[in-house]
Amino acid sequence: MGRKIFLGARIFDGERFHDDKALIVAGGRVEAITARNDLPDGEVVTLAGGVLSAGFIDAQVNGGAGRMLNDEPSAASMDIIAGGHRPYGTTSLLPTLITDTSEASIAAIEAAKEAVKMNRGVAGLHLEGPHLAPARKGAHLAELMRPVEDRDVQAFIRVREAIGTLLVTVAAEQVTVAQVRELAEAGVIVSIGHSDCSSEAAEERFDAGARGVTHLFNAMSQLGHRAPGLVGAAIDHPSTWCGIIADGHHVDPKALRTALRAKRGEGKLFFVTDAMSLVGSEKDSFTLNGRTVRRERGGFCSKLVLSDGTLAGSDVDMISTIRYGVTYLDLTLAEALRMATLYPARFLRLGDRGHLSPGARADLVHLTDALAVTATWLSGEAT
Question: Which residue ranges does UniProt annotate as crossing the membrane (predicted)?
Fold first, then answer.
């Protein structure tokens, strides 16, 4: 890979903006951000204004481009899903398998091993279930839910060793404190979600190493003034990360603004899409575990619902969440970009992504001033 010199756009390095500067990329990595009058030799890429940022990182993607991971848990499906989200600025994601059979989980794990090696945007795997609480099942199948067993712990550890990044969503009711500690010490990223637990039960698991909360506010015990629940524990605990779905349907913007102001610990909320197969597709319905999910158009973006009205994932893409954050959540553009780049990278421990420091992967996205994606690059190569 030769050297590339990106000119013409404001550069956001993950922390701050650089004006009238150039981004230098060599060997698929960031070399430097430098003054325009001090440029090395290389291929010049001239951008028409706007913003050049690290590519977006999404920790929760169930599907895209007409494909659901649960329907075909293969490396090819993961590649198609990643490709379906790339036009919206996402250059790294975790394909997410929702509650399913053990056979589906095994297939997804084997697929992730292959997809990560392909180095085309699949950064690991997210297993959202089956260790969830039936009381907070959401669109998941309660009959497939069960507690974490010791054999599951050992399996998760082996998967983490094989693919690098493994995120597991578990309900506090379905996992012991000792199991959380063992998983966390082995590098598995544990997130509490789909749980009706008390704040005390959640805090015990956070203190044992659970790193995050899956889609804050959704499918969990809510904040009460005498029973703070999982929501209260997540907002109050200083080391806990929280993914949020900012689509105008999953959470009222007033609740998200409140959480953003109240969360202890700087930069601990980040965007996820929880996207289903219809992102990047013109279809209006799909099936989920044998049930029809339909697209209802309207609002900031369309929403996805089961026949009983239950939300079934989202129809939002990552650049839309950034626009939503700036428009409805009182976020500066810099903070909205951090919530799609730097913060999810830190949560997932992807140290060479989500920023444009020297040595970082040159996974890039170019945005217009109106926050529309014009181009993406993986390791410095246009996609």
Answer: none
- pLDDT, tens digit (0-9, with 9 covering 90-100), for 81-120: 999 999 999 999 999 999 999 999 999 999 999 999 999 9
The residue type found at 250 is H
Q: Mapping DSSP to helix (H, G, I), strand (E, B) and coil, where does residue 312 land? A: strand
Q: Encoding tokens for residue 41?
A: 């030799």
State the sign of the Cα–Cα–Cα–Cα dihedral 163, 164, 169, 174: positive
274 a catalytic residue = yes
Residues 364 and 373: their CA atoms lie apart, in Å, by 11
Q: Quick one: three-class SS letters along 175-186?
A: CCHHHHHHHHHC
Q: How far apart are CA 274 and CA 269, in angstroms?
A: 15
CA distances from 297 to 40, 88, 118, 230, 315 (A): 49, 19, 35, 31, 10
What SS3 state is found at 34? strand
- Kindly report, residue by residue over 261-300, the tens digit of the pLDDT: 999 988 899 999 999 999 999 899 999 888 999 999 988 9
Cα 134–136–140 angle (5° rounding)?
Answer: 70
> What whole-number distance in Å separates Cα of residue 167 and Cα of residue 263?
22
- What's the pTM? 0.97
DSSP letter (8 states) at residue 55: P
Phi, psi torsion values for 231, nearest 5 degrees: -60, -50
Contacts of 29 (CB under 8 A, 6+ apart): 352, 358, 359, 360, 361, 362, 379, 380
Residue in the block written with tokens 């339909």: 294
Task: Please state, in angstroms and rounded to a whole number, the distance separating the CA atoms of residues 276 and 81.
Answer: 9
CB atoms < 10 A from the CB of 17, how many? 14
CB burial of residue 88 (10 Å; 0-12, 13-18, 19+): buried
The distance from CA 84 to its chain's CA centroid, rounded to whole angstroms, is 15
- Which of 274, 315, 317, 363 is catalytic? The answer is 274
**52 Cβ contact list (under 8 Å, min separation 6):** 6, 9, 10, 11, 12, 23, 364, 365, 366, 367
